[in-house]
Amino acid sequence: MLHCFNMYTGELSKNHISEYLKETLQEVMENWNVDGKVSGITHDNAYNITKAIKKLQEDTNEGCRSMPCAVHKLQLAVNIGLRIDECIVISKKASSIVSAFKHSYKRTTALEFYLINNGKLNLRLIQCCPTRWNSTLHILERLVEVRSAIVALMADQSCFTKKNGQKTRVYER
């Protein structure tokens, strides 16, 4: 029967060169007393960790296989898809709307007040973070959830002037 375990989650304090990563892998396996018993190591597609595992195999005759993470590869494909012009336009517009609220205490407070008064949970806007998987999806889903509040507040001249309201204008399709 196959068993999978996460044997180490921790901060790597030195530069993440392949030699250091290989040494860290060896140390973790020794600490767990599993050296020679590990059949595979799942990792992202970065060159440094791939090279570290290859060095580990060569230096120790470990039978462990390099197993690039399938989900990481899938996320890389999603990120390529997000580079399509239409996706870039939508993502930039979403980010500008979120920024317009995040950089203004008055707008953030107005949004919270609007949502509470309309029986919605106090949902906060989410900012896009390229290193966080699915953050583009999460920002768009949240904007859809609070869309009516955002549209109402963008029409409110006390929150948005005509000029900055047009910068972040929401269009219907």
From TrEMBL:
GO terms for molecular function: zinc ion binding. GO terms for cellular component: nucleus. Keywords: Metal-binding, Nucleus, Zinc, Zinc-finger. InterPro entries: RNaseH-like_sf, ZnF_BED_domain_contain. SUPFAM superfamilies: Ribonuclease H-like. It comes from the Eukaryota. It is found in: Nucleus. Its main location: nucleus. The keyword Ubl conjugation does not apply. This is Zinc finger BED domain-containing protein 4.
